[in-house]
Design goal:
Blueprint (H helix, E strand, L loop, with lengths): L1 H10 L6 H24 L3 H9 L1 H7 L4 H9 L2 H6 L4 H9 L5 H9 L3 H12 L1
Length: about 120
């Protein structure tokens, strides 16, 4: 994620320094933490009920970025992964809707569930 930020800023003609790069990394890393922390909070039934009642408000309690909030409410797994979500944490989010992570990813990508499962297995090895 740091490289993407660096390349994007470089292409816009902005000069980069070590402090700018470190700031982008820290911001990205803290956003990843908040997204995963929000997903982990969904272990609690009380939190799941609050999330179901008002997903956007619940996400805002964790200071998620607007892009993260949209990805959560859209259940866009690929975008959530790009934004720093981890598979185990995203499974907690997806399960609130009674969905299976493999089937949802297969539907969103057009791949077979078997291909998605193989991809997930490759991440854990």
């Amino acid at each position: 994620m740091v490289k993407v930020t660096f390349i994007h800023n470089y292409r816009r003609g902005e000069s980069q320094s070590a402090s700018n790069l470190a700031e982008a990394y820290e911001t990205s890393f803290s956003r990843q933490i908040t997204l995963n922390r929000m997903c982990c909070s969904l272990i609690s039934e009380e939190n799941r009920s609050r999330f179901r009642a008002f997903p956007e408000g619940y996400c805002r309690e964790f200071d998620l970025s607007l892009e993260q909030v949209h990805a959560v409410t859209d259940l866009d797994v690929l975008r959530l992964l790009k934004l720093g979500g981890t598979l185990p944490n995203l499974e907690k989010l997806v399960s609130i809707y009674g969905l299976d992570m493999v089937d949802l990813c297969a539907e969103q990508t057009g791949e077979t569930p078997e291909a998605i499962k193989a991809l997930f297995d490759s991440f854990s090895s």
